[in-house]
Each structure stands twice: as structure tokens, then as C-alpha cells.
Amino acid sequence: MMMFRFLSILFVIHVHVEADNVASKYDLDIDEVKQQMDSKLAMIDGKLREMKMRMDALAGDNVKLKMKMDSLAGENVKLKMKMDSLAGENVKLKMKMESLAGENEKVKTKMDSSGAGEENLKAKLGDKKQIMQNMKTLTKEDIKLKASARFNTHVDTLIEQNLNLKQIIEDIIENNSTYVETPVTTYIRWGRNVCPAGATEVYRGYAGGTWFTEPGGGADYQCLPNRPQWGRFTEGITTYSAVMHGTEYQVISVPNMRNPFLGTNAPIPGNPESLHDQSPLCILCSVPRQETLMIPAWKTCPEGWTLEYQGYLMAEHRGHASSKSFICMDEAPEAAAGGRGNQNGALFYPVEATCDTLLCPPYIHGGELTCAVCTK
């Protein structure tokens, strides 16, 4: 459900921004517009919950089918044991029939070799009775053998049916397994426009935010898609609105500024100073894991976590009216091509440690803080 929640969160943000635009354009009550939008969101959330219940029901059906398969496997074992027992009885019956046939042959030979006379006649009559009794016994044994053969055929049919049913159940379980949702977590890679190996791009774009001297507006940097999708709008900035500006790196090696970054991906390759006053890129990435964590002052991840990227902590200047959340900028950042430079907007400054209430050591006064983005 994490993907559903993520999409829902994105949709909520979009809907509230849309509500502000609509209210601003048509001079409507923004609370009333947002209330209508929240009602629609509640309906969508209900649908998501309904889908979750259906998935739980399918998981329960899979458990029942697995129990049925185990029961059928036990019945197959019992039937196999019965077949083995009947096979043994068949061997015994066959041996008995062969013995009776031998006795009949002896009686017949005796009758052929016997002479005339009353005593011989009585013996012959007695032998005939014995032959008739043996024939009756053989007939009964033959009936048993035929019944046993029919039973064996029935057992073979049942085993074949059970195997077919087992295959059907396995197919159902395999089909139901497609409804099991793979966990997904997302993170923004600030300063780059490609995701690390093993991650999937959701979208790429440019960093944006509130103008550095404005106390109002949003308090977070935003990763804006490079291909926006517009709804209803009116051109021209109004007095009653928040404004989204572009951003710039503020990184240059002068007495009052620092640049800890690598120049690998800088506008002038190998020269990190060329990042100064340029616009940062960003990309939203997803990985098949459950949690995302940004750790300040670390370049590695805890045991059991996967390092997505490392870099340096950045935020708005401490003296500016517009404060921003701390973000982790990639250690080898890029800049948007065609940037005009030094247009200001929302700004990114390296974050330094200061030895007042912060413990030094282990922290170093004035040291630029590293960061790591980890997933698990």
C-alpha cells in the first residue's frame, strides 16, 4: 500500500494547490473549496481501503487452498499404501490359484489311471466333488481379483484427479500472488538528474522554493518536474498568492563562503567553483524497499541499510527571512543547462557546525556537515 499512499500524498498536494488556484481565480471561499476537495479525497481513500480488504481476502483464500492441498497429499499417501497392500493380496491369490490348478491336474491324472470297479467309481465320484469344490473356490478367487483390479483402476483415477486439482490450486495461488504489493519507498536525489544503480526514476526536474527574503510561502525546497502539467490558470503574479522561484547554489571559496563539493559534474568539469549561482537539478527515485532515512553528519548507512547517495547538508542562509528545511545535496552536483546565473530565488548554502551547545569534539567548529540518504 505504500505506493498507493505515496500517490495519494502527491494527489493531496496537487488538489490543495489546485484548490488555492481555483479560489484565487474565482474569489471563492478557499476553506469551502478545500472541504469539497477533501471529500473527494476521502472517497478515494475509501476505494484504497476497499482494495486492501480484497487483497487480504485473497491472501486468506490462498491459506485455505494450501490446507486443501496438504489434505489431498495425505489422501494420496493413504491410497498408495492401500494399493501396495492389494498388490500383495493379488500375489497370494495368484499363488493359491496355481496351487488349486495343480491339485486339479493331479485328480484328473488319478481318474485317468484308475480302473473299473465300485471302489474306483466311488473314488472317482469323490474326486469329481473335489474338482467341483476347487472350481467354485477358483471362481470366488477370480471374482476377488477382478474386484481388486477395478479398485486399483479407481484408485489410479482418484490420484490423477488429485494431481489435476493440485495443479489448479497452485495456478490459483500463483495468480493471486500477483495481487501482493511489492513495498516501495522514494527519495529525492538533490543536485543530480540520474538515480543510483538499483533505483527507478519517477521524474526529474529542478529545485524550487520561496524567495530568500520572503518570510511567507512554503518552508521546504521542492523538486519541480521539468515538464509541468497545468490545470486552469491565469497568467501574471497576483498580490494574494505564494510564489515558486528557482534556486541557486551559493558555493564559492572566499573568506566568508565554502565549497566542499566535487567538480566532477560541474558546468566546468573539475571546477566546483563553476557551480556558484547556478540552478541545481533534482530527481525523484524509487527503490523496492520500505523506509527512507537521511542522516546528517554521516557518509555511510547503519548496518542493514542501503546507501543511495552521500553528499553535504544544505539549507537557506541563517540570516535570511525565508528559512528552509535541511536537505542532502549530492557530493558531485550538477547544474541546469542554460541557467542565467545570479538571479537569486531560493538559495542553497553549505551547513557548518558551530561549537556552542553542539559538542566539540566530536564536531569541529566551522566544519561543513556531510549527509547520507539510506533505504531499508
**What would you call the structural class?**
alpha+beta
Number of strands: 10
How many helical elements?
3
Q: Which word captures the global form?
A: elongated
What distance lies between the first and last C-alpha atoms, to the nearest angstrom?
Answer: 16 Å
The overall average pLDDT, rounded, is: 81
Q: Could you tell me the strand content as a percent range?
A: 15-25%
Would you tell me which CATH topology of the largest domain applies?
Noncollagenous (NC1) domain of collagen IV
Helix content: 40-55%
Query: Compute the gyration radius: what is it?
Result: 43 Å
Q: How do the helices and strands follow one another from N- to C-terminus? A: HHHEEEEEEEEEE
Task: Please report the first level of CATH classification, the CATH class of the largest domain.
Answer: Mainly Beta
User: Largest sheet at a glance?
Assistant: 10 strands, mixed
In the predicted model, the low-confidence regions spanning at least 5 consecutive residues are none
CATH architecture of the largest domain: Beta Complex
Number of domains in the coordinates? 2
How would you characterize this protein structure?
- 45% of the residues lie in helices and 16% in strands.
- It has 376 residues and is an alpha+beta fold.
- It has two domains: 1-181, Helix Hairpins (Orthogonal Bundle); 183-375, Noncollagenous (NC1) domain of collagen IV (Beta Complex), CATH 2.170.240.
- Strands 1, 2, 3, 4, 5, 6, 7, 8, 9 and 10 form a ten-stranded mixed beta sheet that branches.
- The radius of gyration is 43 Å and the shape is elongated.
- The two termini are 16 Å apart.
